[in-house]
Design a protein that fits this description.
By secondary structure, the protein is an all-alpha fold. The protein has helices at 9-16, 21-47, 57-84, 106-124, 134-156, 163-192, 197-221, 223-226, 237-272, and strands at 85-88, 93-96. Strands 1-2 form a two-stranded antiparallel ribbon. The termini are far apart. The structure holds retinal. Retinal (RET) is lined by residues 112, 115-116, 119, 148-149, 152, 170, 173-174, 177, 214, 217-218, 221, 254-255.
């Protein structure tokens, strides 16, 4: 086997066994689906901006920022996948290409560095905090968000060569994650107070969606170990495809579905305040 150093496990599989047609194409397709959805959803957030009262529109603007950055970085991530592998007719598999970049999930991490603070701020423009201080929550959100991602970014380089280092960085990252979860629960609980019934219902959905979709990211980080259940990473194409699919489901849920639910919540709140987009023809 080639010496791949701190390359991620996708490269080790590409070098050892190579990828079957199905594993390679499914990965390429699911990565493509990811950025296509971001571009489509970009139009949703632009076109619905006037369906909410002006004070809620920053939430839609932040969704637009998230869509543009995710579209671009996920596009590059997809090209990184196809560029790092090439078809080997001898074995009928896709092997690590000789003279190109290795594959790395780093583009995703850079995307999160932009999107995580944006997604966390976004809800603060929809709900009204009853007890907590807006700027304190905002600062804690971006600090823990950035720390969670940067520590995970360092950790992912060790997923094959040093499981212990990988798990230590992963654990530090998880501490920041827990802090974010506690803060978000508080924001949503406070936001429900005094909100119209339907908006309260949406906020309940947002909490469940947030919890489940954000948990998928550490799941994908751990993917090589989830398939081996030991301290040796599983160097199998199933785990690699599993990671691409998990990331795509997580991205669509945490960015797109979350943004849509926030738009629906803001529409309900706008209506309760006398701004009903279904009745104001001229506003649209
Ligand atoms: C890492 C490292 C391992 C431990 C934990 C992680 C959490 C990542 C999360 C990422 C969320 C990203 C989002 C992106 C949307 O654009 C960094 C994988 C806990 C929660 C929501």
């Amino acid at each position: 086997m080639n010496n791949l150093g701190n390359a991620t496990f996708e490269n080790y599989v590409g070098s050892l066994t190579g990828y079957s047609e199905m594993a390679y194409q499914m990965s390429a397709h699911v990565l493509t689906l990811g950025y296509a959805i971001m571009l489509a959803a970009l139009f949703y957030f632009i076109l619905t901006i006037k369906t909410v009262a002006p004070k809620y529109r920053t939430s839609s603007v932040l969704s637009v920022v998230v869509m543009v950055s995710a579209f671009l970085l996920l596009l590059v991530q997809q090209q990184n996948w196809t560029g790092s592998l090439s078809f080997d007719p001898g074995s009928a598999t896709y092997k690590l290409a000789d003279s190109s970049d290795l594959f790395n999930n780093g583009y995703r991490y850079l995307n999160w560095l932009i999107d995580v603070p944006m997604l966390l701020f976004q809800i603060l423009f929809v709900v009204t905090l009853t007890k907590s201080n807006f700027s304190s929550v905002r600062n804690q959100f971006w600090f823990s968000g950035a720390a969670m991602i940067l520590t995970g970014y360092v950790g992912q380089y060790y997923e094959v060569t040093s499981p212990v280092t990988f798990f230590i960085w992963g654990t530090i990252s998880t501490l920041f994650f827990v802090h974010i979860l506690i803060l978000m629960k508080r924001v949503i609980d406070e936001g429900k107070e005094g909100a119209p019934a339907q908006a309260q219902k949406y906020l309940g959905y947002i909490w469940v969606l947030f919890l489940v979709s954000w948990m998928l990211y550490p799941g994908a980080y751990l993917m090589p170990y989830l398939f081996s259940l030991s301290l040796e990473p599983a160097l199998t194409e199933t785990a690699v495809v599993g990671r691409h699919i998990t990331y795509t489901i997580a991205d669509v849920s945490s960015k797109v579905i979350y943004g849509i639910l926030l738009t629906l919540t803001a529409q309900e709140m706008s209506k309760a305040e006398g701004y009903d987009y279904e009745k104001i023809e001229t506003a649209l």
